[in-house]
Amino acid sequence: MTSLRPQGLCPHLFVRDAESAIAFYREGLGAVEVFRNTLSDGTILFVELQLGAGRLLVSEETPGLGALAPPTLGGSPVLILLEVGDPDAMAERAIDAGAEVEQPVREVFWGERYGVLRDPFGHRWAVTTAREQLTPDEIVRGTTYRSEED
């Protein structure tokens, strides 16, 4: 019997310019290319990137296959969480490489240092690291006395 237990999770992002996206993820987030699969015409079917302990697939937008990039869809409803040792430094690195700030990195009521960026291809990234381990009750209490500016 095959185990139904998941072995991992690998987001698959569709972009309008895969080469530029791969360069951004390498420069801005520290990704390392692991594998590249291209079609005979040179179109990137997908590139597998190592990003910390996780993997990320990047493919060229292919409307005929329903593989659409965020600008085609009017934005992205997905937020990819990237845990790092220093979210401030990671945000700065990503911004220097072309990301835009949606929410600056700051201390948040649930006990992390957390910020949200949008990469040049429309994908949204939260950069975070746990600061304190709070119980659900502590998190709920935190929402009553800490503002967005904290």
UniProtKB/TrEMBL annotation:
Residues of the VOC domain: 7-130
Gene3D superfamilies per UniProt: 3.30.720.110, 3.30.720.120
SUPFAM superfamilies in alphabetical order: Glyoxalase/Bleomycin resistance protein/Dihydroxybiphenyl dioxygenase
Top-rank taxon: Bacteria
A Pfam family matched in the record: Glyoxalase
Record's protein name: Putative glyoxalase superfamily protein PhnB
Organism whose genome encodes this protein: Nonomuraea polychroma
